[in-house]
Amino acid sequence: MKVGVRAKLFLFVLLACAAVVVVQAIAMRLVMERGFLGYLNQQSRTRMEEIVPRMEQADATRGTWGFLRSDLREWMNLVLPFLPETGGDAASRVVAPDQAGALARVGLLDAQMHRVVGNLDVNADSIRVPIMVGGRVVGWVAAVPFEAVLPKNDKCFLEHQFTALTLVGLGSLLVAALLTFVLARTLLRRVREMARATQQVAAGDYASRIAVGANDELGALARDFNRMAQTLKHTERARRGFMADISHELRTPLAVLRVQLEAIQDGIRSPTAQSTNTMHLCRSIA
136: which strand partners? Predict the structure, then answer.
């Protein structure tokens, strides 16, 4: 099946637009998944780094993490961040906001990566910040990655965002297809006009011309075609003039020869050596 130039141009531009839309959709998904969730995990790490100094002080004082297993209140006092201006004892202090939900995902690991207290899912693969005492690691403040505990509603929200981005991409692709169709049709209309004019010139109609239109490559091609047609017209005119001159020059000796022959046939003149020489001369010229 023969595929026309318009179809090829349409498919080429459409595929290019589709590739752009697909790449954009993938990039947006990666940004949402890695960028946003990465930001939340970084917020968790920042919270954990705020906890580490209190953990280091507690280990330096107690020398072991065993006291936290039996005293969850002490664990909460170490973990919960308090607004600095509240001061006072733990009962009167105000807990600072935890918008990323980091503290609910925090737990404590000992130096051997065993869970001590806190979130039940913390392990060696969690986000970890070391607790250093005397130049050695005595434990880890760990947090479950945000994507592992992402609430169902939040997951639905992200999926809705991805769906919306997909629909926007499909809409953009549809608009691109319409614009590509109009562009291909406009360009091919000018090409068809050039093809028609070329056929007319090939048939001998040297007066055929193409509208130049826009000042682009097709416009330059139209100007070159018009100059070529004008040159061919002048050449044809010169050829016809040359042929007319030759016909006139040939017509005079032939007329003399015919008059001589008719005069001899009518008996007006007798064939003589002079008349014979004249006819031979006219014949040689013709």
Answer: 133
Q: What is the DSSP letter of 94?
A: P
pTM: 0.44
Owner of token pair 């022959």: 261
Query: What is the total count of domains within the chain?
Result: 2
In 3D, which of 134, 124, 119 has the Cα closest to residue 79? 119
Find the angle CA(105)-CA(109)-CA(114) to the nearest 5 degrees: 115
CB 65 within 8 Å of CB 139: yes
Report mean pLDDT in 10-residue bins for the chain, 286 residues. Answer: 67 80 78 72 81 86 81 81 45 47 77 86 87 88 76 65 80 82 80 84 84 78 87 85 67 60 64 62 55
- Residue 125: which of 133, 117, 135, 115 has the closest Cα? 115
Q: Among 96, 126, 153, where does a domain finish?
A: 153
Residue with tokens 């406009």: 186
Whether 9 and 143 map to the same domain: the answer is yes
Q: Look up tokens 């490559």; give the residue.
A: 217
130 forms bridges with which residues in the sheet?
140
